[in-house]
Amino acid sequence: MKKSVLILCAALSLGACSLFPPPYKVPVTQGNLVTQDQLSQLKIGMSESQVTYLLGNPMIQDTFKPDEWHYVYTSQYATSETKQSEVTDLVLTFDNGSLTKIKNH
Question: Where is the signal peptide, in residue numbers (predicted)?
């Protein structure tokens, strides 16, 4: 009898955990968040130091293409209902220290 009551209590206590909502999962963000206001201030002909002052250091600066800067921003939301991912990539190309091309993905 004691064994049956103990097993019944254990089964009920384990089942009670499903009554609580799932724990909060923090969204994971990485990289450089470039706002629309910052993009509007970005102009062709700006120097590398002006761009760095406005946007910060680039996330990726390729060794083989030092005149191409990548500002990458990734945000991942992982909950039990949805698994979303958001990636933005801003590519800036320089020529002789002057901004020549802006590519926003």
Answer: 1-18
